[in-house]
Amino acid sequence: MAAWYFDAFEARTPPVPVPxxxxxxxxxxxxxxxxxxxxxxxxxxxxTASLQGAPVWFAAPLVVAESxxxxxxxxxxxxxxxxxxxxxxxxPRTAGEIGLEQNRPLIVDVFFPTFTExxxxxxxxxxDGKRLRYxxxxxxxxxxxxxxKRAAMKKVADEEGVGxxxxxxxxGYKAGNLRNxxxxxxxxxxxxxxxxxxxxxxxxxxxxxYFRDPEVAWVQTPQWFFDLQPGDPLGNDPQLFFxxxxxxxxxxxxxxxxxxxxxxxxxxVMEAALxxxxxxxxxxxxxxxxxxxxxxxxxxxxxxxxxHSALVGEAARATELTPYKFHVSEDLYTSYLLHSDxxxxxxxxxxxxxxxxxxxxxxxxxxxIQRFKYAGGTLxxxxxxxxxxxxxxxxxxxxxxxxxxxxxxxxLWTVPFLLAPPIYFFTGLAPVGTYDxxxxxxxxxxLLLNRLAFMLGSWGVDSTRGEQYYLGFFWVxxxxxLDVLRGKPIKFEVTPKTREARRFVSLAWPHxxxxxxxxxxxxxRGVQVARGTAAPSAYVANVxxxxxxxxxxxxxxxxxxxxxxxx
Amino acid sequence: xxxxxxxxxxxxxxxxLERRLDALxxxxxxxxxxxxAAGRSLVVLDLGMVQFVDSSGLAxxxxxxxxxxxxxxxxxxxxxxxxxxxxxxxxxxxxxxxFPDVAAAIAAP
Lengths: 567, 109
Prior knowledge:
The structure holds two protein chains of two kinds. By secondary structure, chain A is of the alpha/beta class. Helices cover 52% and strands 7% of the residues of chain A. Chain A has three domains: 20-79 and 406-561, no CATH class; 95-269 and 329-359, Spore Coat Polysaccharide Biosynthesis Protein SpsA, Chain A, CATH 3.90.550.10; 271-318, no CATH class. Chain A has 18 helices and nine strands. Chain B is 35% helix and 26% strand. Chain B starts with a strand and ends with a helix. Classes of the chains: A alpha/beta, B alpha/beta.
């Protein structure tokens, strides 16, 4: 039996969702309102009274950055405004109980898509899939979806007695792989896993009850990385995202699908795909007609009809039917389309209990690829299907998707925030007129209350690493923005699950540069302050600011130089 | 899924002999019809006996369309009311033109 680096963590148990507290929620909401009011007051002062005497090239970008960050805070607080957990339902006995017209046991497909992952690693997932239990008769069908077309993977599937599906091409990558599987399988519901997702035995019995509501299209469960190193040096822990952000979207039907650990109603996914296909065919026919309007003027009605049929047929042949959008963020995009279908009113459920375990990206390269995909994919959706203008979404759903999208514009404000202290240290110039009592009087109450509101809003979830990586992520995020702006395809790669035998300083040189500049600048300006040639108040403010920046950038640099296999 | 195939006036007429074309039937339906329909110019799907088609069934029809000859089309004869509704809901009524009987489907331009 193969030995794995995560063997030592097998006995770990997942975190329990933070219990909901109505009083705490009220205190959070009150604090958030106060923080936002103070923030608006601070920004008003910044724009109207703090810029005099400050160089425009420095002060203007910074005050714009602060304003954009404030919008980010506003969207974030609104997006975690309230928590209403879904009420679990009893597991359905038959297909009829989830709205199908047949009185037979449910058929559930379990998909393990894989490409390059070690077949023995996938075996562990399959074995846990086979342990899924259910209180009623159920037809459970496990399938390995191997885009790598590997004999070794097929052998493992055969040995484990589960289905093995592969295809001749890799079109659409993971989304295409899922489509191919959907075409060949029959489950009423589909549990989607990653190659390394290890479902817990109770996953189905805890979640299938939600499908009693015929409008529930999918149920997402939290993703739990059971192999995190002490201190989570790479900031991989997704608990803040799942237990706070996703969970607070239940009440307004805006929790989106994140792939692994989600259960889908086949009919919902297929119907949305058909509608999208129908729309695309219609658009293509219209475009063809615009490009070659002559055929519309053909006098013979039969010939005109025949030409039209041929156009429709060609468009249908050229259009892909995509149950999961062929997109780098296929899960988010598919959720977005299902939520937008106001004709059907599909619902999503976020079930807060951890019901599977999986592996985290193991080094900075894997982390970078994964985060780049998240950022590029989300920004690409924003560029082509802006949620603010998406028909069918409710106001709150628009806000939730916009909040997600906005968070990926963070470099617009984090980069100026990172650059400001070194600029001050080396030039002596400040982005505000003076660092006087008025500045501190306006800024500190806002910053403190903002911090407090964040703590209350994410109560019980350690967000320290997340906050550090929020700033440290600027470089990857910036590259994703530039790629989307230039219309470059977001390069799609399977997140590596094994460490690369190399160091990754090349991925973190901007962080090293910024840390060096900030520390060197602080020393340089410190000498001047000590000599009495520079004002201490501006220096103190920038030292605190710069220290926060260095604290945030440091873990990423450390992760870059961490040796392979190091704990 | 049992399907009866006939040749009529140069068209392939496929008649599923079951009441449901759903997720359970779709893989088999797709495989059988794709094989016969590959490269054809006109396929008429006689749904007279089919009372229920779901999205997976409809999706399997789309994959068959992709196997037809360039310029080829698949038409539907005798669709049940529910099938027509689903075609309309998904805007696929333009891809799959419907006719009251097989003869009309074959004769249409």
